[in-house]
Design goal:
Distance between the termini: 21 Å
Strand order of the largest sheet: 1-2-3
Oligomer: single chain
Number of strands: 3
Radius of gyration: 13 Å
Largest sheet: 3 strands, antiparallel
Helix content: 25-40%
Order of helices and strands: EEEHHHHH
């Protein structure tokens, strides 16, 4: 599996290992949920509307919260769907995020 996001082959956060966390930035201190990919964080708030699988289509609001509590309260099939969809979005073969410069800027 290859990501369109470039990172070192020694990175702790390749596309196969996308740890969830809560982050903020110097310009926006609002806590948001994201996943690490290489030296970057994918802001899941900005891509939550893209989740369209059978479990998360109706529950994508969990990525618009300021903590991981609601997401962690979901079940393993929902976690699996989230992981697989995030990997798909970050894949070099999927244009949804890769070819959308405006969305990438927000993410």
């Amino acid at each position: 599996m290859k990501s369109f996001i470039r990172y070192s082959k020694y990175s702790d956060f390749p596309i196969e290992n996308l740890p969830y966390g809560v982050f903020s930035t110097a310009t926006d201190t609002t806590p948001r949920i994201g996943v690490a990919i290489g030296d970057y964080i994918l802001n899941l708030f900005e891509v939550a509307h893209l989740f369209d699988g059978p479990y998360l289509k109706e529950k994508n609001h969990v990525f618009k919260e300021s903590s991981l509590n609601s997401f962690m309260a979901l079940r393993p099939p929902e976690w699996k769907e989230a992981r697989e969809y995030i990997q798909k979005l970050l894949s070099e073969n999927d244009p949804t995020l890769k070819d959308n410069k405006e969305l990438i800027e927000r993410c």
